[in-house]
Amino acid sequence: MAFSIGELARRADVKIPTIRYYEQIGLMPETLRTEGQQRRYGQPAVARLAFIRHARELGFEVDAIRTLLSLQDKPDHSCAQADHIAKERLREVDQRIASLKALRKELKKMVEECAQGRIGDCRVIETLADRSHSHKDWKEAVG
Amino acid sequence: MAFSIGELARRADVKIPTIRYYEQIGLMPETLRTEGQQRRYGQPAVARLAFIRHARELGFEVDAIRTLLSLQDKPDHSCAQADHIAKERLREVDQRIASLKALRKELKKMVEECAQGRIGDCRVIETLADRSHSHKDWKEAVG
DNA sequence: GTAATCTCTCTAGTGACTAGAGGATCAAGA
DNA sequence: TCTTGATCCTCTAGTCACTAGAGAGATTAC
């Protein structure tokens, strides 16, 4: 019934150091150890890790995941907070998509206008050098 | 004609430590110093910094920018490499947009199905806990 | 001359991991 | 029981592109 960190890593498809890292930052609880200090896990660890991974796949930050995990343990609590966190994330994703689309437009223009000739006439370089230009909030688009 | 790092920061709309950082990693060249070791810049520094910032806005990595900057100084060179770098970036952006759209779809479903009731019935929490699920290449979508 | 502002270097922190060193432990076969 | 090879342990440092802060020195305006 008790398996090693390597086995947990396989079952949840998460790398071993990541599991230790999650324990360190408190996303995964400290677990049983053998006499030789090796970690041993049970089925609930797999479920919790899968929850965390899925949340990370959706881009939730560790702090948000911490909250979501704690909510999970209170079935009778209102789910308003969980809903709020998810809506926030949706808003972020929408914004990110919009920023990336703007980026894409400019990149596409650059690439399409490039005549594949000399650097001196290259629209890619020219566009980058063009100073009459300023984005706001670009940092959220590039990451 | 020679101005300080603070003035350069204002003109190019880049923070002072960022300028020093760019010098450190070789994106900006070492520049004149006063007797007291303070940096002094001229107009070309503003142009170069603007080039870098614009490239960062478009999400080019520092290594790519290094290449683009070196190309800029060879007007008679073919622009194939610049074109290649830009096309690569466009591909990345396209992929990222696609990943984010998939994410968005799942988030939207979660949020819409949430009945705003008890955690025990919350689709947000349920969806996250659902283990019958695996994305490939999600890491490029969440960043 | 003096005060206010600016700048210097250096170190460390961000987020969410990932990689490696150097050594201990475990499970399985002989 | 012993050995071998795989796995595991902790700890430190690295990733990317910055950003923040300490403590000291330089410059500029008056």
Give descriptors for this structure.
homodimer, Multidrug-efflux Transporter Regulator, Chain: A, Domain 2, mainly alpha, elongated, 62% helix, DNA-binding
Characterise the protein shown here:
Two copies of one chain form a homodimer. By secondary structure, chain A is mainly alpha-helical. Chain A folds into two domains: 5-72, Orthogonal Bundle (Multidrug-efflux Transporter Regulator, Chain: A, Domain 2), CATH 1.10.1660; 80-142. Chain A is 62% helix and 0% strand. Chain A is built from seven helices and no strands. The first copy, chain A, has helices spanning 5-12, 16-24, 43-57, 62-72, 80-113, 123-129, 139-142. The interface between A and B is large, with 63 and 63 residues. Chain A binds a DNA duplex (30 and 30 nucleotides) through residues 4-6, 15-18, 20-21, 25, 34-39, 56, 61-62, 143.
How much helix is in the residues of chain A? 55-70%
CATH class of the largest domain in chain A: Mainly Alpha
State the end-to-end distance of chain A: 42 Å
The CATH architecture classification of the largest domain in chain A is Orthogonal Bundle
Largest interface here, residues on each chain? A-B, 63 and 63 residues
The biggest sheet of chain A amounts to: none
Number of domains of chain A: 2
Structural class of chain A: mainly alpha
Give the CATH topology of the largest domain in chain A: Multidrug-efflux Transporter Regulator, Chain: A, Domain 2
Beta-strand proportion of chain A: under 5%
